[in-house]
Q: What sequence folds into this?
DNA sequence: AGTCAGTCTGGAATCGTTTCCAGAATATTG
DNA sequence: CAATATTCTGGAAACGATTCCAGACTGACT
């Protein structure tokens, strides 16, 4: 009895009120078919009377299952991640799982401790765009079911977007508009998606004999993009592709501030299709990826792992789709 | 030994390796001062050797504390909430708490079950803009420590923004620009902040003898705002204030689509100052609230409650600040 | 009526940790 | 050196649920 907080009602209270043993209460509630209808009735009534809800913590101690899943991601302030988390949450709730959230603030060094801290309280993890080195993450292999989103790393199942195809679409679009020299503003070096997108872009431009200008790495934020804008303008590029939409928005902002016409002087393409991409002026041409699907598919991949089936290394690659808006136009003559 | 998953190392394993009892291991790790330096050394070494981390679940069963806090909010897709969650997360991590997240999808009926489901696994709750009726929420009073954000409801401590002052600033700004008739596009009826903001706006316009036009309630989303845009134009209002930035962005979008000049024909003011507000064209004039503070202050208010101190009903009201950008201008003549 | 199969039930053990208690070891004092 | 005070330690109980086991009961059948 602590500080006036109502004492939690336990299975014993129910047992006493129903006049049966704790084991019977447990059975009656978990699997009504295993007790006589009359006891079931008595137990259910008593449980309702007292407002009994089994203590998940105590249960998980004996069953070894917590019905929780852990989600670790680099930065909730990046609008991409909330969409993913939301879809995870929705799917998790359907399956009666609760969600632990851990934001690592883009710091790779925080990831492993964050996972470690949650490990005992969850049945499995969804690692969203993890930044930590492969070896570090692999140290969890076999310890806990893990599904990785937006990154491919053996031996974990993963859900990724088809960046190569997205880049192919974007490059084809720009090529058709007459662009021959494209700059790429890269995201964090530790980001697998960044490398993946860069790789896809390199292949796509090479395939068409276009020039690819490296505009360096920046933080995947609006400020990062703004910082890269002037560098981009100093090159020969007539179009710029950003690692993600936030960077692209930063580019747009800085271009606008400097009076650089978009798409007149330079075309801008983003990646992710976050909500705001459609709202800015000019609206951003971007490569959309199925954000809501990532989370749902991730959970569905995690499920069999948590149930103990060694479904090993399923790799789901989700399609990407170029969304053409106002920020891209014909190359200047 | 289940399905190849490495068996978790328990306190007994450490005890065996260190050649001491489980209780000594516990003491050595929890409070090194209570054991002889030599045992401490042995235990620490053994723990490190085996990679032992105490099982929080088991611990919480006996201590009654989980070191988890639950966060419940209406919609992660609204950029306002991720900022709050992020600040909660940051503060919680500093204090060695982990965060449970539950998104109710703006459905008031989901809130109570969501809280109920998490109740046994957390030491306290941060309810972000809860939509459920007062009575429903009050049923948790005394059961679990709860701090409410963006809503005031006895007997819970709360953290809110000074909407009245924000509205006063916005109205003063518009009045100075010559506007005399203002429309308000309201958010969810179940939202306390919506009522609070509406109240503040009513007072501020009345104080200056201005006309306040009610443009109805819409969902707090871009689409909601777009839907309200035409209604607003049909009124005599020369300026429109939205319940939040998303609605304001929807208004801007629809105005732009219809070729309505902003701020030439009509001025637009939002609320919250979400990241994108500054990025759209024209950039949105809006009332900023200290999003990062809300979460931090909320956690700090929750802390003493979870420790058992009945600090009752602290009410923190955070300041608001009008941010003037391009979406407001002189009233048309 | 007696045997047997099957259904229900209560008691005990268990999960991994913390905490209480009492006894052992060590240190302090006259 | 003996007596006392102090520090450390191990064993056992506890947290709240689930699960195994064995015994009690029911009913069916010969």
A:
């Amino acid at each position: 009895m602590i500080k006036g907080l109502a004492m939690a009602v336990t299975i014993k209270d129910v047992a006493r009120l129903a006049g049966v043993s704790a084991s019977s209460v447990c059975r009656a509630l978990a699997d009504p078919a295993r007790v006589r209808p009359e006891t079931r009735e008595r137990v259910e009534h008593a449980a309702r009377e007292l407002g009994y809800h089994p203590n998940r913590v105590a249960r998980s101690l004996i069953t070894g299952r917590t019905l929780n899943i852990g989600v670790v991601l680099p930065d909730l302030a990046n609008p991409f991640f909330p969409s993913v988390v939301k879809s995870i949450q929705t799917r998790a709730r359907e399956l009666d799982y609760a969600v632990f959230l851990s934001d690592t603030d883009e710091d790779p060094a925080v990831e492993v401790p964050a996972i470690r801290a949650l490990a005992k309280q969850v049945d499995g993890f969804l690692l969203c765009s993890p930044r930590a080195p492969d070896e570090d993450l692999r140290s969890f292999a076999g310890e806990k079911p893990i599904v990785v989103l937006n990154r491919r790393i053996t031996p974990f199942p993963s859900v990724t977007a088809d960046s190569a195809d997205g880049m192919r679409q974007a490059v084809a679009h720009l090529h058709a508009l007459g662009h021959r020299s494209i700059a790429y503003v890269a995201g964090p070096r530790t980001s697998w998606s960044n490398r993946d997108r860069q790789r896809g872009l390199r292949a796509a431009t090479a395939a068409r004999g276009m020039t690819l200008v490296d505009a360096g790495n920046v933080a995947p934020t609006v400020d990062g993009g703004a910082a890269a804008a002037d560098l981009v303008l100093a090159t020969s590029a007539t179009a710029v592709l950003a690692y993600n939409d936030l960077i692209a928005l930063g580019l747009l902002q800085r271009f606008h501030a400097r009076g650089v016409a978009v798409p007149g002087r330079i075309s801008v393409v983003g990646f992710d299709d976050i909500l705001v991409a459609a709202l800015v002026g000019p609206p951003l041409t971007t490569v959309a990826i199925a954000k809501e699907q990532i989370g749902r598919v991730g959970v569905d991949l995690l499920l069999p792992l948590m149930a103990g089936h060694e479904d090993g290394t399923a790799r789901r690659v989700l399609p990407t789709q170029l969304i053409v808006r106002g920020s891209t136009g014909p190359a200047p003559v």
In short: Residues 168 and 207 of chain A are 9 Å apart (CA to CA). Residues 1-5 of chain A have pLDDT under 50 and may be disordered.
